[in-house]
Write a structure and sequence with these properties.
With about 350 residues, the chain is α/β, with parallel strands linked by helices. It has a single domain, classed as TIM Barrel, CATH 3.20.20. The protein contains 11 helices and 9 strands. The strands form 2 sheets. It has a 7-stranded parallel β-sheet. Strands 2-3 form a two-stranded antiparallel sheet. The radius of gyration is 20 Å and the shape is globular.
Length: about 350
């Protein structure tokens, strides 16, 4: 990557027509700024994990739990992952053991198909040869917390973990490791730490670190792996506004310490209005491997270059080395804003690199 730019990270969703369009646009605009490109989670996958619900509803081991009320204040029109107009939690049918539950996630199917387009476009020179294909995967708790009755979590969580690990293994078997990067999306765990969701176990920290650390360990050592720590993005608003970065830092440190391998990156959101020192102070407590890049989601389309510049300056008081990103994916924004937003990333990447050099 050019030293003239700070590294740029894309969380996952990019609302273009297909994966090839994402690869070509990102490859053109962010050439020299980016090390990994996701497929944009286009089509039915544009609303994060909502596309998993129809697969779960078809599973013979699951059925609606009529005893549980529908979630409140979550609607598809708001961009949330749940359509509360007809949603009911699912539960594991009576008499079915967790070992009997066979789940299909289709993440491998989607990733392998997208990689074919990535490899073709990269071979044609539109994506630099050293840029990897990025696959974003959910944690089992994310699926369970949104779609499964808590009474069934002890059975469902290990079943979904088996399924997502199987898809991960298929992805790693079909895509050259030197071309692959895996991102674990960690959102609902953040909500649990904020007290918005119940924990599957009495020890929430122990559960979080152990379960996500194990997912990171499941990624082959020569495949890059990273974390997207998230406060959600329904209606371009956080589910809960973070008071500061303390929970994000605690999660980053705990997961990093719980995995046997090196994390290549960790992404954290930065709310648009937060230029105050209090938000960034906890970043000084980060204890990450030297090979791990911190990406701060401080790019906001609504206040463009000047807002990002202010947040970059505030962050640099605490951490001197970091990359830039938005807070979350682009999936819930109009397609015609994607190119200008990518151009904003490039300008901010250049600005961050220039201001860092001037400060030395």
């Amino acid at each position: 990557m050019s030293q003239s730019f700070y590294p740029v990270h894309l969380v996952g969703s990019v609302p273009l027509v297909d994966a090839a369009s994402v690869f070509e646009m990102v490859g053109e605009i962010l050439n020299g700024c980016i090390s990994r490109i996701p497929d944009g989670e286009t089509g039915e996958r544009s609303n994060w994990i909502a596309w998993q619900l129809p697969l779960l509803k078809l599973n013979p081991a699951l059925e609606p739990d009529r005893s549980k009320a529908a979630p409140t204040h979550e609607t598809a029109s708001d961009g949330a992952a749940v359509d509360a107009s007809d949603f009911r939690f699912l539960k594991v049918k009576t008499g079915i053991d967790q070992a009997e539950i066979k789940l299909e996630t289709e993440y491998a199917k989607q990733a392998i198909a997208s990689f074919e387009a990535f490899a073709e476009i990269q071979a044609g020179g539109k994506i630099p040869a050293d840029v990897r294909f990025q696959v974003s995967l959910p944690t089992p708790y994310a699926i369970a917390s949104l779609y499964i009755s808590p009474d069934s979590w002890p059975q469902f969580l290990p079943a979904y973990e088996r399924a997502i690990r199987r898809d991960l293994a298929q992805i790693a078997a079909r895509i050259p490791h030197e071309m692959l990067a895996i991102q674990w999306d960690v959102c609902m765990e953040v909500m649990a730490w904020e007290g918005q969701l119940p924990s599957p176990e009495p020890d929430l920290a122990g559960f979080t670190f152990r379960s996500i650390g194990a997912l990171c360990d499941a990624v082959p050592a020569d495949v890059e792996v990273g974390l997207h720590l998230c406060y959600g993005d329904p209606g371009h608003k956080h589910i809960v506004e973070p008071k500061n970065s303390e929970i994000l830092v605690a999660l980053a440190n705990g997961i990093s310490a719980s995995t046997d391998r090196v994390l290549n990156w960790i992404h954290m959101p930065v709310p648009r209005e937060r230029v105050d020192d209090d938000y960034y102070a906890a970043l000084g407590n980060l204890a990450l491997d030297s090979e791990c890049t911190l990406f701060l989601g401080l790019v906001h389309f609504t206040d463009s270059d000047h807002g990002a510049s202010a947040r970059i300056a505030s962050a640099r008081k605490v951490v001197t080395e970091f990359g830039i990103a938005t807070e979350c994916g682009f999936g819930r924004r109009p397609a015609d804003t994607v190119a200008p937003l990518l151009e904003l990333h490039r300008r901010c990447s250049k600005l961050a690199a220039t201001s860092a050099e001037e400060g030395r």
